Amino acid sequence: MAQRVATASKSKEKVSVRVALRVRGFLEHEEKMESCILETTDTSLELFNYRTDESLQYRFDACYTAASTQEEIFEKELLPLISRTLSGQNATCFAFGPTGAGKTHTMQGSPQQPGVIPRVIRQILAETARQQAAGIASFQVSVSYLEIYNEKVFDLLEPKDSDLPIREDINKTILIPGLAEREIHTEEEFETSFADALQNRSVAATKLNARSSRSHAVMVVKVQKKMKDSTLLGKLHLIDLAGSEDNRRTDNQGDRLKESGAINKSLFVLNKVVDALNRGDQRIPYRDSKLTR
Asked: Taking a C-beta distance cutoff of 8 angstroms, is the pair 225, 139 a contact?
């Protein structure tokens, strides 16, 4: 899971990318397998490579074991982003990893174990209601939900007959003309819209995953905060990425192979963008994929 937060300064926009690792537990058919994880700490993971007979250590901003709960992930990683969004800033959280790693479980979850997206909506609605009751400000909360499938953008809330274009205005703000934006007031309103939209997402079976996401799904939560003398607008992007795939293992053919190529290409561009941000490069190659725009 990675987060991107942009904060304005007098000189230029500062961007920080925080990377948190979540270890998926064994599935039922994997329980007899031997774990390659030697040790985990709050910020590191040590693995044993059986092919080379050596250990490898990786460091992260945060590391969560298989015992970590959905609530723990939300409270430690998402609550700070919600505060920024309510203050008029933009932020992004995306789940990144190979197919079958548990990205959709983390972002979407289940009725018994809600993931990042429903928890974010619940918290934003609760906090905006609290501030409105206290007379601090008035709020308008709305959501859009789209997927990027084979490098084409499709509306999941209100499906159209064709894909949607991506535009950039004179202020370099990214726009998607025709993308539905739905105002929400209650959790029940959101849950109904979200459940319907999920039925429109592209999924298919592969050799490694019975319900493999074949697209990147992007939930955009927009919060407009009106105070006496000013209005703030913050956006929080919650992205469930399709998993990177090794076609030698998935045995993809036909449409699955084409989808896999588009997925891997866009994830490669995302890697380049994150690397460029971390290095502080002058040129960020975000135009190289619909995903990074």
From this structure: yes
